[in-house]
Specification:
The chain has 265 residues and is an alpha/beta fold. It has two domains: 12-159 and 216-257, Vaccinia Virus protein VP39 (Rossmann fold); 168-215, Single Sheet (N-terminal domain of TfIIb), CATH 2.20.25.570. 22% of the residues lie in helices and 31% in strands. It has seven helices and twelve strands. The strands form two sheets. An eight-stranded mixed sheet has the order 1-4-3-2-5-6-12-11. It has a four-stranded antiparallel sheet with strand order 7-8-9-10.
């Protein structure tokens, strides 16, 4: 059995969070309403829980606890880091298990002074780190926190580096409460950067701006980051339910492992 988690009545803080906090601060107040069903929670939790019966789990970008809470409810100890105080404040109001510990930290570089059986980053969160160096640092930080034989799950889209229709777009979304969201995006496939601004018009006519930016990577590019961090690709599927990954897959769940022995110098 893993060691019991410290009481989670308050978020623990490490070093100040970097720019990765921008997304969380912009979307914390609407995240649960807008994105609670953004992926299959049941399949995600089932896949992680199936690895072994006694797990110490690290989630990068824990947010408001969409995945961490059901994992803790499945009797797993979960440490969830996030760079957004606003996201963690929302999570704090929902915590009922002492097996879930939120920590304010930048997932690009962190030191938690413990090791984990499993680490995971879900639904494109790795792309919120807006530089290649930050993403590489993230993989290295994860590697440093994994036990030998530990696993790192990465869930992300498979980006189209040759988009068929321009580099700018606007979409609209009608909200259940009568509000409206205009999402304007500019995509640079050469830089692999997408910048967006969500213009949220509330039912009473107020306007809220919710900016975001991602630095997307192909599965192969993520593999390069993993190798540089001392990790090896173990398997890759299209989703958490083990659907085979093919050339036409639009997303992937990649599993990297830390060797059980140190590589020779």
């Amino acid at each position: 059995m893993s060691d019991p988690a410290p009481a989670a009545s308050a978020s623990t803080s490490t070093a100040p969070a970097a720019s990765a906090s921008a997304y969380g601060e912009a979307f914390a107040d609407v995240y649960d309403d807008w994105y609670s069903d953004v992926s299959d929670i049941g399949a995600t939790v089932a896949r992680i829980v199936a690895v072994n019966p006694s797990q110490n789990i690290l989630e990068l970008g824990v947010g408001t606890g969409r995945l961490a809470i059901p994992l803790a409810n499945a009797d797993r100890r979960v440490v969830g880091i996030d760079a957004s105080p606003a996201m963690l404040a929302r999570l704090e109001t929902k915590i009922q298990s002492t097996r879930l510990q939120p920590i304010l930290a930048d997932m690009a570089q962190f030191d938690l002074e413990e090791s984990f059986d499993i680490a995971f980053v879900a639904f494109n969160t790795i792309f919120n780190l807006e530089s290649s160096s930050a993403q590489q640092s993230c993989f290295s930080s994860v590697s440093n926190h994994l036990k030998p034989g530990g696993l790192f799950f990465v869930e992300a889209i498979v980006p189209d580096l040759d988009p068929p229709a321009g580099d700018r777009g606007i979409t609209t979304r009608h909200l259940a409460d009568g509000g409206l969201v205009l999402n304007a995006t500019i995509n640079s496939s050469t830089k692999q950067m997408m910048t967006g601004q969500q213009i949220h018009i509330t039912p009473d006519g107020r306007i809220k701006l919710r900016p975001w930016q991602i630095h997307y990577r192909t599965p192969g590019q993520l593999d390069v980051l993993a190798v540089a961090a001392g990790l090896t690709l173990l398997e890759r599927h299209e989703d958490w339910a083990h659907t085979p990954f093919t050339d036409t897959s639009a997303r992937h769940v990649s599993v990297y492992t830390k060797p059980t022995t140190e590589r020779p110098l």
